[in-house]
Structure formats: C-alpha cells, structure tokens
Amino acid sequence: MLRAPVVTIMGHVDHGKTSLLDAIRETEVAAGEAGGITQHIGAYQVHQNGNRITFLDTPGHEAFTAMRARGAKVTDLAVIVVAADDGVMPQTVEAIDHAKAAGVPILVAVNKIDRPDAQPDRVRNELASQGLTPEDWGGETIFVDVSAKTKEGLDSLIEMIGLAAELEELKANPKAPASGYVIESHLDPGRGPVATVLVQRGTITVGDSVVAGSTWGKVRAMLDFTGARTESAGPGDPAEILGMDDVSEAGERFEVVENERRARQLAQQRSHRLKAESLARQQARKVSLEEVFSKATEGEVKELAVVLKADVSGSLEALQDEIAKLPQERIVVDVIHAAPGGITESDVMLAAASDAVIIGFNVRPLADARRAAEREGVEIRTYSVIYKVTEDLRAALEGMLEPEEVEEALGQAEVKELFRASRVGTIAGCLVTDGRVTRTAQVRLVREGTVVWTGRVGSLRRFKDNVQEVDEGLECGIVLEGYQDVKVDDVLEFFETRQVEQTLE
Ligand code: GDP
What we know:
This protein is an alpha+beta fold. 28% of the residues lie in helices and 36% in strands. The strands form five sheets. Strands 2-3-1-4-5-6 form a six-stranded mixed β-sheet, with helices on both faces. Helix 8 packs parallel to helix 11 (386-400). Bound molecules: guanosine-5'-diphosphate.
C-alpha cells in the first residue's frame, strides 16, 4: 500500500503560504470530501483520484527544519510558493536550501497570478538560476501557476503533487506496528494532553499503548483532521490522540508497543536518557571543525557541510569562489546555504539538522541564533579576512583525511635450522639473504608463498649476544614474539610501517 504523502508549504513571507493552505482546504470542503473541517489539528488531508495527500498546517521552512533537527523526517514533498508579482526573495532561497539539505523533492507554486503585475515567467527565470529549471524548459522541476485568491490552478497543483508523490513510491505496510511523529501537542483544559500525530507506518487504533519520547499513554479516543471521532489512522494520516500522560514534544517519534506497562517503562528509560543527552549536548558541541576530524576517522563524514553568511553578496561570492578553489578530490565542502545577512536562528537549525558548521564573514549571530547554537551544539565561526576562512577550512579538510600507513621493507631472512631453548622457546637460526633485520622490526612469516603469521621480533642474537641489527649475508638467531611454530625453509620478511599525513592535493 502507498502512504499518503506529507507536504509542507514554504516560501517568502507574504507570498501566500497560509492563503494557499486555506484555499486548498476550502476546495476540499467544497468538494464535500471532508465535510466540515471544524478544527485545525496541525495537518489536514485532501483527496485526489482516490489518493490522499496530507498537508502540514504549519507552513515555512523554520518549522520544517526545527522538526528535522529533532530527528523527525516528516515531510515528503516541499511546495515552494513564490508570489508572481514579487519574485524570488531571500526566504525563497532559504526555503529551497532547507528543502535541498533535507533531500526533499521540490515543486513550485507560482502564486498570485490573478494580480495584474504578475510575471510568472520572471519567477521561472529567477528559479532556474537557483537550479530549479522548469520541466517545460528542459529541467526537472514542476511549476504550477496558481491563485489562492481566485482558486485558479489549485486543482492542477493538487494533481501535480499527487504525481510527484507517486514518483517517490512511499510504500508503507499498514499491518506493521504503528509509528510516526508527534507534530503538535498541547494541554486541553477539558480533554487533558492532546497530541497530533502523523502516522508513518502501520495503523494506530483506539486502545493502543503508545510511547512518544518520555511521554506514554493508552489511546482513549482519536479524532481525524476534520474533528470527527475515528477508530484508526493509517500510513500518512494525521490524527489527534487523547490519553497521553503528558504533553509530548513536537518532532518526537511515537511508537505503538505491546502494552501499557511496556509504554511506561520505555518512557521512563527515555526520560533518563534524554536528561543524559541534554547534559552531554551542553558539554560537547555536536559539530565543530575539530570534531569533524574525529567523525571522519570513524568514517561518518565524507563531506564538510557549511552554512555561509556574509555582510554583502559581493563578499559571499568571493568566499564561495575561494572555497571552490580548495582541493576537493577527497573531501567535499558542501555549502548547503549561502546568503547575505546576519546569522539567524533558522541558519542554526539548518546547521543542526544537517551537521553543518556555520561560517560568518563580517556578520555576527543574532541573540536568538546564539542561544539556539548553544542549545543545539552548533559551531559558529566568524571571520573578517577571507584567507582565514579558507585557511581554517583547508586545515579542517586535511584533518579529515586519515593518515595513510605505508610499509617499508627492511630485508629478508631464511630459516636454516631450529634450536629449542627451555626458557625462550624456538630459536630460528637464520641467514639474512637480503637487506637487514632489526630488533624493532615487524615480521611476516611466509611458508611456501603463504603468509602464516605477522608480528614482531622477540629477540635478535648473534652468537650469544643480543644485537639491534644484523646485515645481509650474516647469520643470526631470531625468536618471534608469541610464535613458536617456525619451520626450516620458512622465509621471514622484515618491515616497518609509518603514518604518512595526507595532503589535499
Ligand atoms: P504568508 O505569509 O506566505 O503565509 O502569506 P499570506 O497567505 O498571509 O498572504 C499574504 C498576503 O497576500 C495576504 O494579504 C493575502 O490576502 C495575499 N494573497 C495571498 N494569495 C494571494 C493570491 O493568490 N492573489 C492575491 N491577489 N493575493 C493573495
């Protein structure tokens, strides 16, 4: 079965996000599908060719990214709204970058086409230069002209969302244990804690035991998005559930578990863990240039994600040019968002959700942003000289490269005879046939062309004396550290290893 796709509407302020959400909801009501929607629960659904599409009621990329920073991947498709009379604005670009950083497919709604000064083609031009080229211009982005005011184009917008969602193949098993995310939660004076959940897989049913972060409960009653009582909600459906012990946090994952006892137990465990985590987060910053290094050696990071803010677009461009010049064959600097202006909370949330570092050039974080950075453990670096930025980035990239271990061959010896000594074990009487043998070398024991053992020299003797080194053509006695099973005709290869720092070039 296919899951109902979840759509978030994003775009610049006043370009009509809320109007569009309202207009879509009204068309659904007018079509008689949803009856009367008596309340807003944080999401609603529309029907299209028998399929359902879920719209999140909180428009904007800030809410979207805040959820993502909590670890909630709720949205399947982003609709970027651009007013046809205003064109691409800073928050349009920001919304696009946020959606891209999340890997969410984008569809463009060119709104306000009813206005006499509407220039939908200008919007297409501007977005094409942002990498969103319209399909009918040979690109891959779907554009739909709409008017939230006259409702023109809304049907085709819904249709296109349905088509785009089909491409995503959002499969879900309705029989799996239900899980998903809490998208909203509040305390209702009459009904107690109310949580709006978005089911991602499985089906949640009245009577189920649920855990969401440190909250838990038994579903006492459930309402669908129209406010009507319902018994169950399936993949992609929003539902309001009553019966939680407390207000859950938005972005929290919920899960149906076998019984109430288990739900309570899990909630308690999580509450302990959350406390520990929040402590740890305060102590250790999540992403710093230094930490990127340790993550890289653990194999977690192959690219360095960066949010770039600068005082003016000129310096932003200069910075981007310089960053592009850094050698990136081995590790890529991924500028996920670049914009002029101060560092905002939205930048910090984007960085938190994408494990990115923020670089500010001649700009400072605003107070909200600084608090958010502390809370989320995001590193903000500010600079006033361009070469300092690239110098630091270069150092970070170099730090991300694991030093390579190189082997240097020292020499070879052949085992000619064996002696047993009661205290030291097997002594191999050897002839150094090539190079030299040292006391501190590593050894590879080769028998009939196969490596049988690798380790270190235990002791190296010439006649009765311990020596540090024996040269080619000479005989010596070798004891291998922790290996007794040497045989005549075995070949011992001696080598050393050393770490070589990698350079970017
Ligand atoms: P938001 O900030 O993106 O949520 O934008 P709103 O939905 O609040 O809309 C901002 C303003 O644009 C409001 O005054 C709306 O009435 C107006 N508006 C929204 N959509 C349209 C439209 O399609 N045509 C016209 N003419 N005005 C619109």
